[in-house]
Amino acid sequence: MANKLISQMGLPKSIGNILAARNILTAKDALSLTEFELMELLDVGLSEVTSAVALISEIACPPYQTALSLMQERVQNEYLAGHLPTRLKGLDEALLGGVPFGAVTELVGPAGIGKTQFCLKLSLLAALPANYGGLNGRVIYIDTESKFSSRRMIEIGATSFPEIFHLDGMAQEMAGRILVLRPASLPEFTENLEQIKLSLLQHQVKLLIIDSMTALVSGESDKDLKASKQHPLGWHISYVKSLAEFSRIPIVVTNQVRSQNSNESFHYPFQVWNNDESMKDLPRMESHLVAALGIHWAHAVTIRLVLEAHSGISLVSDDGIEIPGPEISAIHCQGYDDIFDFNR
Predict the structure, then answer these.
(1) Which pLDDT band, with edges at 50, 70 and 90, does 219 fall under?
(2) For 132-166, how does the pLDDT look when each residue is reduced to its tens digit (9 = 90+)?
(3) Mean of the pLDDT values across residues 303-319?
(4) What is the DSSP pairing of strand 303-310 with strand 104-108?
(5) Could you give the CA distance from residue 296 to residue 310 in angstroms, rounded to a whole number?
(6) Exposed site from 33, 64, 185, 300, fewest CB < 10 Å?
(7) How many Å apart are CA 154 and CA 174, to the nearest integer?
(8) Is 78 found in the same domain as 131?
(9) From CA 63, how far away is CA 60, in angstroms rounded?
(10) What total number of domains does the chain contain?
(11) pLDDT in tens, 72-113
């Protein structure tokens, strides 16, 4: 709006012609000077300058919005954006339909827990034709650890969607919709992100996956991340969030875990240690692992899904009480009391 031409603002010709003659062509040119500087430059009276500046300001400034209108706009955008169903019933119910569009969803867990496999499954779901419940779009998969396996992806597709993948040429078509990038360094990753924004529109991309964020700063300890005034992924955090809001597609990132110091305070509900003496005889879950990348990164994600493997656990509440049950691998949704079966 600052570069809007004054000639298009409908100013009186008397003042408009003088501004043009003095090479004051845009709103920015005019509003960068004080009224007295404009009086001297244009050789006109204060009332004429004040009137012209008021009109230029009114046209150049964006209209105000109330808090209510902003809230209504956000609710409407979220309603129109929708979700990418994971096909895990309990998880989709907890997420109110699946992985939300226009937001950053993080998968946290130790190596081998199934983060990459979950991302491969989501990639297939986004690439599936709409009549099979998919998004019928392309996927950009940023593979920073070289863990992406096209063979494993086809195996997952053939097992999960046999009615589709057994059709002639369908496996090749689905694989062709998933675009894989493998940056070898943080500068390469930065370049990839800068190029992605245009691709999201040009190639009908319906899902962006970054697997994983941790590998990009693997040389930095978590202590260094806390001590540093500027997070090494600070720009990337902001850019990824802006991509989600701009494109209104789901963005999924993975994160590793690190060991927790014994005297470190807990930051998340799933790491609670319950000191209630009345419950001291009940078994409790004491989490010794926390998400990597620090609290700065944690504040950037919209939804955090923590993947944990437990033996003999079927349910765990937010106060850390274990309830015995069959051996499962589970997804624990932060902020909810249920553990959802990952193999369901």
Answers:
(1) low
(2) 888 999 999 999 999 999 889 888 988 888 888 88
(3) 62
(4) parallel
(5) 28
(6) 64
(7) 9
(8) yes
(9) 9
(10) 2
(11) 777 666 655 689 999 888 899 888 889 999 899 999 988 888
For residue 250, pLDDT beyond 90 = yes
| Helix axes 46-60 and 35-42, enclosed angle (nearest 10) | 120
- Taking residues 193-205, what's their average pLDDT? 83
Q: Which two tokens stand for residue 265?
A: 């305070």
Residue 233 sits at φ, ψ, to 5 deg, of -105, 20
Same domain for 26 and 115, yes or no, is no
Closest CA to 117 of 342, 344, 282, 278: 342
**CA pair distance 305, 90, nearest whole angstrom:** 13
What H or E segment, with its residue span, contains residue 156? helix 150-160
Q: Strand, helix or coil at 259?
A: strand
Query: Does 270 have pLDDT greater than 80?
Result: no
Do 164 and 51 lie in one domain? The reply is no
From the list 103, 92, 16, the residue with the least C-alpha distance to 51 is 16
Find out whether 283 and 296 touch, Cβ atoms under 8 Å.
no
Percent of the chain with pLDDT over 70: 74
User: Which pair of structure tokens corresponds to residue 187?
Assistant: 């500068």
| Residue 16 lies in domain | 6-60
DSSP codes of every residue in 1-44: -TT-BGGGTT--HHHHHHHHHTT--BHHHHHTS-HHHHHHHHT-
Q: Are residues 42 and 131 located together in one domain of the fold? A: no
**Nearest to 239, CA basis, from 260, 265, 210, 217:** 210
For residues 167 and 213, membership in a common domain is answered with yes
Place of tokens 């298009």: 8
Residue type, 124: L
* Same structural domain, 327 and 254: yes
Tell me which of 282 and 290 has the higher pLDDT: 290
Amino acid identity for residue 282 in this structure:
L
CA atoms within 13 A on the CB side of 130: 3
